[in-house]
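Supplementary Text 2. Reproducibility record for the structural model of the 95-residue chain.

All settings were left at their defaults, and a single model was retained for analysis rather than an ensemble. We include the record here because the model underlies the residue-level annotations in Supplementary Table 4.
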Amino acid sequence: MSTKLPRASSVLEQIIGAVGATVITSASEELTEKALELLPAKDAAAWACVVVANVDFFITLDRKHFKQTQVVENSPFDIVLPSGFAATFRAELRM
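Retained model, structure tokens:
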């Protein structure tokens, strides 16, 4: 993130601190190998860390790689675009 959006990096750090989030920076070798079967290396590392984090949703703008059928079918979480997550979140709030 610091490379793509350097000014947003400090804001993200503040948000992570405020909500008490845990940052996962690595995964097991076995999980990383599985990720490499599904995705290019730069995306595989992110996917493996999301698996370790045990999340319900992975929110991404990267349709090209993360929305491929093989990735979606092998992910233990829903992969959604920000707009899709916003709609789901709003629906959950109404329940």
